[in-house]
């Protein structure tokens, strides 16, 4: 009997961490996902990547599981990325190290030559745009402890993609950022749906993104809908997945009507379609 319990104890300490790495190979601009099974002797704390701490949250749809999302910065170079998982076992703080293989997503480059006078903003526009940027970043940096996620994420409309996430933009020979979302073909006035349930945390007209809606899904996940012609929601409203948020348009700094759809995870812009596929196939699997 004693021998048996010793063996059992030994087995427990080896297999104590039940971690599922959804994607150990991940490219810049994409999201990585780790899932943990709840075990009575273990309390998960957080994970640390490059001194940045990421919170481990309860799976919104399964109380026996935890998860953490790690957004890989767009400018991250290929490397073996060290990921430290902190947890306590028998009141002792422990850590386990795993590695992610960061690959180059090889995003396309888009070269634009523009009349420089057209990109110089007036003092008022510049002030407005930087105020709006600061306001948005303050929102994206908040991690609501509660998750509003009710089921799988959906795209806001069924339409052709006209511009992928990540395209590098070279203006007059110099690199000036990248495309931070996915563009969908949408003529003026196309109804748009909430990608998942959440709280409307931004609903207003902005200089660059025009008619803009941002939904807080909880746990530091936000979805963004830009260049809209009509907003049917206001800040503070609660929304369910698939409910209408307004109509697409061509407001803000755009050349024509379309929907720009974005996802933020822990304040970072990530590829929205890869995020949706990853989270639906793993964390939210089977929950329609
Ligand atoms: Zn766009």
Give the helices and strands, then pairings:
Elements: H1 2-14, E1 19-21, E2 25-27, E3 31-37, E4 42-49, E5 52-55, E6 57-58, E7 65-71, E8 79-89, E9 92-103, E10 109-112, H2 116-119, H3 123-140, E11 161-163, E12 168-171, E13 174-178, E14 182-185, E15 191-193, E16 198-206, E17 210-218, E18 221-231, E19 238-239, E20 244-248, E21 258-265, E22 268-270, H4 272-281
Parallel strand pairs: 2-9, 10-12
Antiparallel strand pairs: 1-3, 3-7, 4-5, 4-8, 6-7, 8-9, 11-14, 12-13, 14-21, 15-20, 16-17, 16-19, 17-18, 18-20, 18-21, 21-22
This protein binds zinc ion.
Number of DSSP-assigned strands: 22
Order of SSEs: HEEEEEEEEEEHHEEEEEEEEEEEEH
Radius of gyration: 21 Å
- Ligands present: zinc ion
Fraction of helical residues: 10-25%
Structure overview:
With 288 residues, the chain is an alpha+beta fold. The chain has 2 domains: 2-103, Immunoglobulin-like, CATH 2.60.40; 109-281, Glucose Permease (Domain IIA) (Distorted Sandwich). The chain is 16% helix and 44% strand. It has 4 helices and 22 strands. Strands 11, 14, 15, 16, 17, 18, 19, 20, 21 and 22 form a 10-stranded antiparallel β-sheet that branches. The longest helix has 18 residues, at 123-140. It is globular. The protein starts with a helix and ends in a 7-residue tail after the last helix. The model is unreliable at 1-14 (pLDDT under 50). Zinc ion is lined by residues 163, 179, 181, 183, 260.
Name the descriptors.
288 residues, alpha+beta, Immunoglobulin-like, Glucose Permease (Domain IIA), 2 domains, ten-stranded antiparallel beta sheet, five-stranded mixed beta sheet, 4 helices, 22 strands, disordered N terminus, binds zinc ion
